[in-house]
Amino acid sequence: MMNDQPEIIVISLLRAVERREAIKAQFSHLGVDFHFFDAVDGKKGHELFLRFDARKAKRIGEIPLTAGHLGCYASHYLVWQRCSESNKPLIVLEDDAQIFEESFSRFLSVCPALPETIECVRLFDSRSRNTERLRVFDQNGVTVCKFLRGHKSATGYFLRPSAARKFLQYADTWAEPVDIEMDQFWDNGVECFGVEQACVTNNPEFESAIDTGFNTKDLRKGLMRLRWRWYLIKGKIRREIHNFKFRKSLNLGQKKS
């Protein structure tokens, strides 16, 4: 367990003045300290972009990552490095986060009590169609669950150094957006834990900073579409096996207690 509160980091582009002012106002109202982390601007490029593996993306039927996707991935990657090097937990938010004050404050209050085995907690509602979950922690009105599918977003999450190192190792090469690769718990070793009551959501005043500009369904045709479907099937099989083992370990732990 932790001895103190985690530092709060907000990933934000230097030029995103309106977003910065909006998130500053929220934390000012909460009376909670935070720090901006200057995001990587996809339009300007970065040495980390070399980690994008175009051949792997093609092999699995993924559409090449845009400059916005690469900038987003690089920004989270650098925050993971910071967490790993400091050896201290963080709460990581993107600058379009809208904070639910009551649930966010409750989560902050229980952070020191979170078991070490809970390495990363998504602080927003899952965007997956399957939100099946297993309760693993309950204190002071905060319920943390193991989700059987990923959340499909990186708007906000609690992160331990142990999870940061696993994400860094998994991100040796990039083929998919950062939130999707974070969700691949059966491969990256970071269980997908989330809160039952969301602490943050996306601020509706701001559009996504990731400029896609295309429809994935229109682009995935023929052989590319078949590769993608096969990739998803293989991932589903591995995910189900992993979740079966997790359920079994959870049941064994409950019986022992």
What does this structure look like?
It comes from Marinobacter fuscus. It contains nine helices and ten strands. It is of the alpha/beta class. It has a single domain (7-256), classed as Spore Coat Polysaccharide Biosynthesis Protein SpsA, Chain A. The chain has an eight-stranded mixed beta sheet with strand order 2-1-3-8-5-9-7-6, with helices on both faces. Helix 3 (67-86) crosses helix 5. It is globular. The mean pLDDT is 93.
Task: Please specify the SSE layout and strand pairing.
Elements: E1 7-12, H1 17-30, E2 35-38, H2 54-60, H3 67-86, E3 90-94, E4 97-99, H4 101-110, E5 120-122, E6 133-139, E7 142-147, E8 156-159, H5 161-170, H6 178-182, H7 185-188, E9 193-195, E10 200-202, H8 216-219, H9 222-256
Parallel strand pairs: 1-2, 1-3, 5-9
Antiparallel strand pairs: 3-8, 4-10, 5-8, 6-7, 7-9
Helix pairs in contact: 3-5
Shape verdict: globular
What multimeric state do the chains show? single chain
Give the termini distance in whole angstroms: 19 Å
The name CATH uses for the topology is Spore Coat Polysaccharide Biosynthesis Protein SpsA, Chain A
- Structural class, judged by helices and strands? alpha/beta
Domain Glycosyl transferase family: 7-180
InterPro entries: Glyco_trans_25
Protein name: Epitope biosynthesis protein
